[in-house]
Amino acid sequence: MSINKTLFLLLTVLLQTATIIQASSQKLNVVLIMADDVGYECFSAYGSKEFSTPRLDALAAKGMRFDHCHSTPLCTPSRVNLMTGKSNVFNYVDFGVFPKGEPTFANHFKAQGYATAVAGKWQLLTFQTGITPKEAGFDRHCVWNIPGTERRRYWEPSLMHDGKVINHGEDEYGSTVIADYLIDFIKTNKDKPFLAYYPMNLPHNPFDPTPRSKDRKSKNGKQNFIDMVAYMDHCVGRIEDTLIELGLRENTLLIFTADNGTNSSLTLDFFGTQRKGGKGYTHDHGTKVPLIVNLPGRIKAGQVNKDLICFSDLFPTIVEAADLPAKKITKGDGWSFWPQCLGKAGKKREWIYGYYFPRPYSQKFDTMYNHWEVAWARNKRHKLYRDGRFFDVINDVREEKPLGERAEPSAARKTLQAALDEYPKKGAKIDYERVTGVRKAPGTKKKKPKRK
Which domains does the chain have, with CATH numbers? Predict the structure, then answer.
């Protein structure tokens, strides 16, 4: 072998080794995507025949799909739960409000030198209270549903770009603008570690046609919703295509989930049965959401995980995946399922605790979005509410037939009751004097006037 050829081979090996060392020393990028108002029944990766989500199907096929991930039944509670990694019973304040003083996953990543951005639906700040994207740890933001933006979210959208409200033109589509913004952030920060949080505005109502709809004037709400789910999938594909184009895909953890079930005004195919969407309800169709985790080369393809996962678990999971210092553990925090993503056993949940008090200070209770607080503990089959209702959620998914005292499996009930007993009986940050000034708790009897 000639000297020149030997030197060439040696140089090639050295370059390859340097590339491997550089890749292993790079911090992991994280893209966390959460869709708005879409249950697991709307994804072909989960077996839907009514919807087509090819890009998400591919991410699931080349990564890991989770079959038992649960959120809360409504958007703000799920967002607070996700961003703090803590059960809502400890920190939930009110609808549309993020509790001040609660650290977020963005605060955590920013403290470790990450560039951070959020693009999509905010809904965590009112004119009275809550927090801004900057306070939440995001360097940059392009958000809707924040004071200053108008109601439009899709065509002719009103969005806040880094503190400045921009009312876009009638031919501009909000979801496209948001995806463009996030793509620009990724391109701008391609040479440094980044965390991109993408709380999508799709496919929440109003159910309007998308830029890719065949009929741009369609008034068919269900068909438009199907098109919106397809456009949601398209936007996820655009993000992945950008990562591939920039050579970042191998070093970027991509997670997709949703905040709650589908809008209850829609009747959909639930795997052979026609049912209304479950948003706002605490049964499975309101809380069970898709969860897809993909990282080429580290998460093996084709895995389906059946462990119980709750939204509190996502914060510690992305922290462990990025090999960052663990978040400070407080009561009610979730734990990481990153070992499961790598094919290991990990720490498995025997049960999930849920807490839901969507609008504590509403003047109108007793609707699916406005009602008294409710708490429950569940495993894969059974579910026990704090008020004593007990269900077999496999055979009674809509929780219409409570199990009787004698018929119930006592071991499951005892385990779930013990789980409930680990948590406070009331929300830690709810002003109950103010609540009871609005409406008495269920079961509270009004005092009868004394006879004179």
Answer: 27-345 (3.40.720.10), 353-438 (no CATH)
